[in-house]
């Protein structure tokens, strides 16, 4: 017999309402270098406190991370990374490091989300443009800020990247281009796993330097093409990938980009769209719907969508044999083929 609301108590409401407590504990730990300090091995409470310079609440912070499965603590009270945080929060592993994304979430997104109600009420973005600024010109004019942003985009896509290298029949294709490629991490993983592929990153010209630096760091041969995918033709290649790109735009622009992809691909070519796809019934995948709310905070007309939505847009553009496939718990891809 299910419990009544009175028997359950208000905990589900409180847990959701105060979810920012847990998120701030994790984000602050990243900023304070907790995971960096543990990348060399386990540390006791005093050692970890000294390494991070935390003056108050150190034990509470470290233990809430243990309770959240972000850290482990042994019988001697020594803290260490878990398998998950060792993979994704260890700065010495640039292939998988998520810290850049979390720093961006703390410094940029967290303050902007305080104005979510304003975004919903007014229909206007609540990021740098709220007070007349323009995020992207400022971002691309500052090389170091741009690098941080690109690292954060890599972090956001890392789960999908690791899954996508085996989730598509790459052996049947020879060339691939990633539209809005950021650092090029997806292409690097693809070429490492499938060395027969010729891989091209397509992004704004300012991205060239960090892209090529990252390719050298990872030791993979990648090509970069600078351009504006909104204004210029897309690279002619056998597979085109749009990862976390379509959700930035309104429906007309989404359809325009899909049509441009169809024009650029040869017969038999494929388009891959990966996003935090919302479930078709819009009942269970809260992360995808929260991501769509983030687009309301960040963009003029962007929104996330279901796999069925995207499949329909692909078919309208002429793609056939479309299908939807889960990549990770948060990410899914929609694939379509040109006749």
UniProtKB/TrEMBL annotation:
The keyword rRNA-binding does not apply. It holds the Pfam family Methyltransf_2. SUPFAM superfamilies: S-adenosyl-L-methionine-dependent methyltransferases, Winged helix' DNA-binding domain. One of its GO terms (biological process) is methylation. PROSITE patterns: SAM_OMT_II. Residues 113-319 form the O-methyltransferase C-terminal domain. It comes from the Bacteria. This is Dimerisation domain-containing protein.
